[in-house]
Amino acid sequence: MQVYKVGGAVRDRLLGLPVTDVDRVVVGATTEEMLAKGFRPVGADFPVFLHPKTGEEYALARTERKSGRGYGGFTFYASPEVTLEEDLIRRDLTINAMAEDDQLNLTDPYHGQRDLEARILRHVSPAFAEDPLRVLRVARFAARYAGLGFTVADETMDLMCQLSESGELQALTAERSWKEISRALMEDHPQVFIQVLRDCGALKELMPEVDALFGVPQPETHHPEIDTGLHTLSVLEQSALHKQPLTVRWACLLHDLGKGLTPEEEWPRHIAHEHTGLKLIKAVNERFKVPKDCQELALLVGQYHTHGHRALELKASTLLELLQSFDIYRRPQRFEEFISACEMDARGRKGLEQRSYPQADYLRGAAKAAREVAVQPLLEQGFKGPELGEALKRERLKALKAYKEAATA
Ligand code: ATP
Ligand code: MG
To answer: Rounded to whole angstroms, what are the CA distances from 310 to 8, 322, 353, 405?
Structure first.
């Protein structure tokens, strides 16, 4: 049997990038031979094994044929007769369809190296269209390598357009989609992921609520970029520049969904978009079975981001309500993430990327003031139950009034 490194490991080595996860393909072996060598089988669907010592992945060379809709609709054929070239042709992009042996001899039947040098993301064969997830994968690689100058080949874009139009994207499971979306959002240029999806019509299929923001104007005084879709892309871009976690990036993507619902007569204003957007944010969250922390932050940021921007003008009582809504006493991290998302929103505007955001420290100070109100003296005064809660709230309000006065004096 022969073993080759394939996929990302080969691609990233040739790009001079660090290689983290190594995939290997084994040609000329049977499952029985692998098991006899101590490899541990994984995955019910694929002939994939883990190395007994290193734990790295070894897959038997295989061919695939589409036999139905969606990803379940695939049949695999693995046998010692399947050649390396046959295994490579089922892969998504030419730059992902190269293999190398121990001596670093490259097997590159589909000209991945040429495309790597030309900075082109190009599909390997028409079989690309058999798995709609590849539309998301290409957009994700575009987001990852945009900084190196990579773009999607025209003919690949054509295929992605056809796939989007066919409605096949609807057959993707929430889990597969979210895995690509979440990884793409964590890339260096997550806005490119959304832009590519939009360009091929996939955004309209996957997240029509986000797609609807393009072409919706906002007041130029606050939004020199005017277009809400462009603003959303800029906010995402800022979130990556500022190394924000996934929760914040997800919230950035969804924060303005309500603006897509504003009747045209009201443009460019978007009164109460924070509230109208909530049901859309909820729908997108549920569609992709998004992890709970991401769901929660997106909803809170959607509802309260304008509070964040107006923090210094908020009455002490409104400020207190905001802090209570975030349960800052038990969830300090979540409030920090909210502040970050607001800051990204403020900076994700044309020409305002470098602006300062004094609201951030002001909100942190307010949270600190509210947290510092001690319970003990109230207990000593005999408060308990709901009355204790009320008394605590009164004291916190007092503290916030004092804080506001001192901070804005
Ligand atoms: P990463 O650095 O993100 O791990 P990768 O290219 O290694 O990038 P993997 O998801 O680990 O991506 O997949 C390994 C290889 O398997 C890919 O390079 C590609 O050749 C192939 N592959 C994975 N998923 C698909 C798919 N849905 N369709 C076609 N080929 C795929
Ligand atoms: Mg990989």
So the answer is: 46, 12, 18, 16
Q: For residue 122, tell me if it sits in a domain.
A: no
Closest C-alpha to ligand 1, atom 12: 8
Question: Distance between CA 23 and CA 87 in Å, rounded?
Answer: 13
Query: How many angstroms is it from 47 CA to the middle of ligand 2?
Result: 16
Compute the distance from residue 180 Cα to the ligand 1 centre, in Å.
Answer: 11
| Residue labelled with tokens 């790597």 | 116
State which of 111, 133, 167 marks the end of a domain.
111
Query: Which tens digits make up the pLDDT trace of 190-237?
Result: 999 999 999 999 999 999 999 999 999 989 999 999 999 999 999 999
Say how many Å lie between the CA of residue 28 and the centre of ligand 2. Answer: 22
pLDDT digits (tens, 9 = 90+) for 65-99: 777 665 556 788 888 999 999 999 999 999 999 99
Whether 21 is covered by a domain: the verdict is yes
By DSSP bridging, strand 23-27 and strand 57-60 are parallel
Mean pLDDT by 10 residues, the chain (409 residues): 96 95 94 93 84 93 77 76 96 98 96 98 96 97 98 98 96 96 98 98 98 96 95 98 98 97 95 94 98 98 98 97 96 97 97 96 98 96 94 97 93
Determine the structural domain holding residue 387 and report its residue range: 372-409
User: Which residue's CA is the closest to the ligand 1 atom numbered 11?
Assistant: 8
Q: Measured in angstroms, how far is the CA atom of residue 22 from the centroid of ligand 2?
A: 6
Domain annotation covers residue 102: yes
- Ligand 2 is an ion; its neighbours by CB within 5 Å are 8, 21
Among 144, 150, 158, CA closest to 118: 150
